[in-house]
Amino acid sequence: xxxxxxxDVVGRPGREVLAAAMPDLRAERMPDLxxxxxxxxxxxxxxxxxxxxxxxxAGADVxxxxxxxxxxxxxxxYLDSExxxxxxxxxxxxxxxxxxxxxxxxxxxxxxxxxxxxMHLQVExxxxxxxxxxxxxxxxxxxxxxxxxxAELTSEKVAMGWHLDGRVAAVLGTHxxxxxxxxxxxxxxxxxxxxxxxxxxxxxxxxxxxxxxxEALRTQMPVRFDTADQDLWLMGAAVEVGDDxxxxxxxxxxxxxxx
Length: 259
Ligand SMILES: [Fe+2]
Ligand SMILES: [Fe+2]
What we know:
Blueprint: E1 2-6, H1 11-29, E2 33-37, H2 49-58, E3 62-64, H3 76-81, E4 85-86, E5 100-105, E6 108-116, H4 127-137, E7 144-150, H5 154-164, E8 170-174, E9 184-185, E10 191-193, E11 200-201, H6 210-219, E12 232-241, E13 247-256
Parallel strand pairs: 1-2, 2-3, 3-4, 6-7, 7-8, 8-10
Antiparallel strand pairs: 1-12, 5-6, 9-10, 11-12, 12-13
Bound molecules: fe (ii) ion (2 copies).
One fe (ii) ion binds next to loops.
């Protein structure tokens, strides 16, 4: 089973990059399952039904989210009704949406899980016991498991890789928007990368126009943030998963795109 995983799509430039890049990526990587983090899809923060539709139309099978999940209130009913869009599973259970789904890919039942770190991010439960409990409940229900670990700190993200090594096919980091160079298959057979990076403009500061981000940092005053739109890239990872549900390899994807 070939998984294509794409990091945080930021605003309209990110959505356009995704749509423009997918045909070539499909031809080159022949993915059976495409998972896209869409937490920044709508105006750079959060997601709406329309922007999620755009990501699905571009070829995503599953959309994962993160700390910006609830930015747009009008999306809440959609998060409840659409099984293919996920919010972190360690948010309060009563919150809109759900934290995992099971997708069919290359004859396998692939559980895709969205999980949030707890350091510098708000969650109800520590991701470590929360994921243990979910994996327990998935016994017999999935042939392979993919985790989008949406977290801030490299230490917590590396630790989650070790925590899940041998139990899931992949632990792929999102949220920082900066790709790390540590993609590898851990000894137990779990593909891990601390962060796959973002899809959108590299000309700004993790997606925001750089002059606005710099003004905010220089003046320490509130500044309106717009989405940067120059120097567009798609960032992600491709993971090959064997019939045993463990990874055979992970390739980082960092490609400049002109929509
Ligand atoms: Fe993000
Ligand atoms: Fe985030």
